[in-house]
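To make this tangible, this section ends with a sequence with its structure tokens:
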Amino acid sequence: MPPGHADPPPTTVNELYDAAPVGYLTTRPDGTIASANGTLLGWLGAGGDELRGKRLQDIVTAGARIFYETHCAPLLQSEGTLRQIALDLRGSQGRRPALFDWRRIDGADGALIGYRVLVVDATERRAYERELVAERERARQGAAALRDSEARFRAMAEAVPGAVFTCDASGRATYYNNWVLDFTGLSADALLGDGWPSMLHPEDRDRAIAAWAAVTRSGDPYEVEYRIRRRDGAYRWFLGRSIPARDSKGRLLGWYGTCTDVHDLKTAKEDLTESEALLRMVQEAGGVGGFVRDLRTGEVTLSAVDQRIFGLPPGTSRLDREAWSALLHPEDRNRVLLEIETLAAAGATGRQSEYRIVHPDGTVRFVEAQARFVRDAQGRALRCVGVHLDVTERRQREAELRSLNEALETRVQEEVAAREAAQAHLAHAQRMEALGQLAGGIAHDFNNVIQAVQGGAALIERRPGDPDGVRRLARMVSEAAGRGASVTRRLLAFSRRGDLHTEAVNPVALLAGMHEVLVHTLGTGIGVRVEAARGLPPLLADKGQLETVLVNLATNARDAMAGNGQLTLAAAAEMVPHAPGARHPAGLKAGSYLRLSVTDTGAGMPAAVLARVTEPFFTTKEHGKGTGLGLAMAKGFAEQSGGGLQIVSAPGRGTTVSLWFPLAEGALPAAAPPSAPTEMAGGRGRRGVRVLLVEDDALVREVTAEGLEAEGFALLVAADGASALALLEEGEAADVLISDLSMPGMDGLTLIREAQRRRPRLPAILLTGFATNAAEIAIGGAMSGAFTLLRKPIEGRALAERVAMLLEGVAAGERRPG
């Protein structure tokens, strides 16, 4: 030791011992711990005195303790020294891998006094060992996977019915599957390396070699067609393809390729080219132009013939959407474009249409197009492929033929019209002859009426002081006027015209009368039965019109039964309840009705006919045997009368036509709550009801006004339509309008229409003495609900009753629910 230097103090040695990067401990011969340095205590998370007296097994994990007791302790007793024993410490922060070294400590006499133990932290070493083991396992698995991949590739390559090959990065062949060897008859040694061109056709060899050399330098995919010699010496066309294989860093590893036999496809293409040439010749000969329209872009490709059809210069084979649309005639353009879009979207297989085109020089031509849609797997239309044919000359010939046909039809119509006119003149002459035969009786009746009216009026004028006599004479005059009305009705019956007259009709008596008529007129093969219980309430309708409707229905039923079957006429009272949201099949409102039905056992009607059978002019009968108006008129009549119509029919099950009519006075209780009693019918409630009377004949106007005033109505009188409208516009009150039909200037129909435009829902009565158009006017007013028609002459009391019934009907309609 150099002079002047002293040994370090013992405390410094202890500090170095405690701060050493390894752990130290001493144990007694029995294995208990005598001391430990600070590093080991820190790993274990223990204090300085906590380990004294504990055994080494207490500071290691359970697995390490077992290994120590079964392996280390026996060896330590026999050997006295152990090195690099891996045991895991049980520390405060979990398990810590460590390596233990034991050294024996002997006393002066050579006896064992304990062990000095060195503990090294093996955490990083243990992790490295695990990673090394994992890396070795991955390498093993990768090698196995590579072997499996190569085996699968070879298996797949051998299973492919074509050529499969591999090459190294330089382009030298390293593998050919057995298919190549079998096809060419060459050995693998002859083809591997640079021997593969030997199987190519001499004319293709240099081209294929040059293309392969280029891609091996560039690393691009390889695709070349060439011919390969079969073992029998024949050559077939193949498509050779090869793609580069690279590692994760992009370095070229080699090439994988195939050779696909395309000989048949190439031959088919050549055949197709020849066929297309023949097709073009056929199209040229027939003047048929072909086209392809791309439905996504609108671009149209035209054949040479199609270019001529559209008047385009040669070589104009492609047109965009706008150019092609411009060739369509302006009046046809939208139709054609919309037709293509609609059919393509609807999944149609094709289209056929005819339209006009306009050449660039302005010439208009007619073309016929026939096409089919080409669709993808999802059904979307991709292209429209078809042909055009110029049909201008054909259209001209058709127009000439149509003109000839029209001329012929005109001549036929003229001949038919002349024949019908002759028949009409004959019928008119026959009617005039019959009317002449009636004229004597009609004149006699009117002379009697005039005699009675004139004589009675003269006697009344001379007897103002004889009330009883005046009343007797007035009754005689009224009876004479009634005979005059009867004469008018006889004339109307002869002309088969009449007016509507709503009245209470007994359904039982009505059907009984219809039975008497029909049982003798429908034929012996038709049985007629009536089902109507006694005591049914009367219905409200025009009896004459109702009888006509029933006769028409019975005639239809006879035709449906082909002259043999059973016809049933039935009547029943029916209540339609008030049901919010519900709709009656015949469109009836809530209330009480009388239902009439006509049922046959005929063939019945299919649903398509049943849906249209009430349309005007719709008929299933032969031409000339039906107008198609019968059921339409029946439906209109029933609805105008306040009811409805329903038809139930099915093929083979016959037909039932039901008509509903409202009940007349004294009928069953209505569905709605009864209103307060009215005195209108008796006259006491007519006070306060104001009637606007319009009549151009002063005498008729005066008599009619006095008759209504005598019945309790208040009157507002006008001599023409303009004056009546002026009163309404001045605000004059009017509860009902009564107008003559024929008046100078504005007629009654126009007056009612204008008055109801100013006063909606104003009830109206139209009076007429004409028979020629009364029925038509009545039907028109009834169908619209605008007015009621009455025929002159009519007594004041009868007119007052009709006014009262009209107003009560309006009030009931306003009270009716629904």
